[in-house]
Amino acid sequence: MQWWDNFVYWFYSDAGSHVVATAIVPxxxxxVAGVIAALIGRGSTKRILSMHDRDERAAAxxxxxxxxxxxxxxxxxxxxxxxxxxxxxLECDVRLRLLPLSGSVLAADWATHQLGELRKQAVSFSFxxxxxxxxxxxRLIEWQSHPGRAKKLFKNDxxxxxxxxxxxxxxxxxxxxxxxxQQASESAVDAFSAGYTGSPSPGENAVAPVAPASTxxxxxxxxxxx
Length: 226
Known about the structure:
Radius of gyration: 48 Å
Low-confidence stretches: 199-211, 213-220
Structural class: mainly alpha
Oligomer: single chain
């Protein structure tokens, strides 16, 4: 305990008080101020990054909704406008995929598929285009607000579409095989019919012409005298 007594004696002495007042207290104050400044700066940086990410997310979603609006009016666009809309839709797809958010790839896949459906509905003058556009907008806005719901919002639809595409592919393969079998059958029937009813070649089984019988009367010779 002698060292503690010495420290207490030194701390309350003039020299100790001078060291504490001129070195220790300012050092501790600077250290505390630095920690507080670092915490404040970290919080400000996080807020700035969060605001930037939110702005990027909102801009990407807004651009994708604009591309969907063009797709819903696809039948009224001219050829140059359609090419420009395709270019904008591709850029929106890339921007959506590059967002540092959960489910951005799922959202981009879902949005790209829906853009194609909106174009088909617009070309066929379907009344469902406006309803599909409304659902498209609501889904993306909800995902932008709650990125963790991407699987619930998009994955089920993507799995359902993938299953339907696989069934369609199987139907196409079956139809292709049936068509090939029908063509082979028709070719075999045509070949058999051609071999059965084919005309003989020139010179084959030819019959020599028969001269017509003469109708001229021939008198018998007179009897000879004995």
